[in-house]
Design a protein that fits this description.
61% of the residues lie in helices and 7% in strands. The protein has 173 residues and is mostly helical. It has two domains: 52 residues, no CATH class; 110 residues, no CATH class. Helix 2 runs antiparallel to helix 3. The radius of gyration is 23 Å and the shape is elongated.
């Protein structure tokens, strides 16, 4: 007679399962399993694996925020100057904002010595917004509608581009 023990999920002790984490070999249910290209992992192993890629130090947050804020203020000022160019201004915005976003992201990457962390990328995005706020507020105070619109376009394009460039998200391969 063989004694068969039924494995139960480590997080949900009432759920029978046949899945096991490929790293720690703990039994897990389908809702606790995270599919990876090489097999299933438990959420704890995925979390521990992610921590290995968070290399940002405490000072990287300040350096990234200040760098992004300063460069964003300069870019927002240039965007405010473009507002008076008419249709040519729209073309300059379409070409200039992605280039400015790339320059901001690469400058932050240089200053932080390529350190990575999701929270660092978010702080840098906030720095881009905070840097553009003084120029945007000047546009609001002067009631320059094209200036306000161009500042909004700048922020809508720049923040996601800086974040994706820093985080390494690839939309197309």
């Amino acid at each position: 007679m063989t004694d068969i023990t039924i494995p139960y999920c480590y997080a949900h002790p009432t759920r029978e399962t046949s899945l096991r984490c490929k790293r720690c070999d703990r039994p897990m249910c389908a809702s606790c399993a995270v599919r990876t290209p090489t097999g299933y992992l438990c959420k704890d192993c995925v979390r521990n694996h992610q921590k290995a890629f968070d290399t940002a130090e405490w000072y990287d947050y300040a350096l990234g925020f200040i760098t992004a804020g300063f460069l964003s203020a300069m870019a927002a000022f240039l965007v405010s100057l473009i507002g008076g160019f008419g249709i040519f201004g729209w073309l300059l915005i379409a070409a200039g904002v992605p280039a400015a976003s790339a320059a901001i992201a690469e400058s932050v990457r240089f200053v932080t010595r390529r350190h990575r962390s999701r929270s660092l990328f978010i702080i840098v995005g906030i720095g881009v917004v905070v840097g553009a706020l003084p120029v945007a507020l000047l546009q609001v105070i002067s009631m320059n509608l094209f200036g306000i619109l161009f500042q909004a376009i700048y922020l809508v394009i720049a923040v996601p581009l800086v974040y994706t460039r820093l985080s390494g998200i690839q939309l197309f391969r």
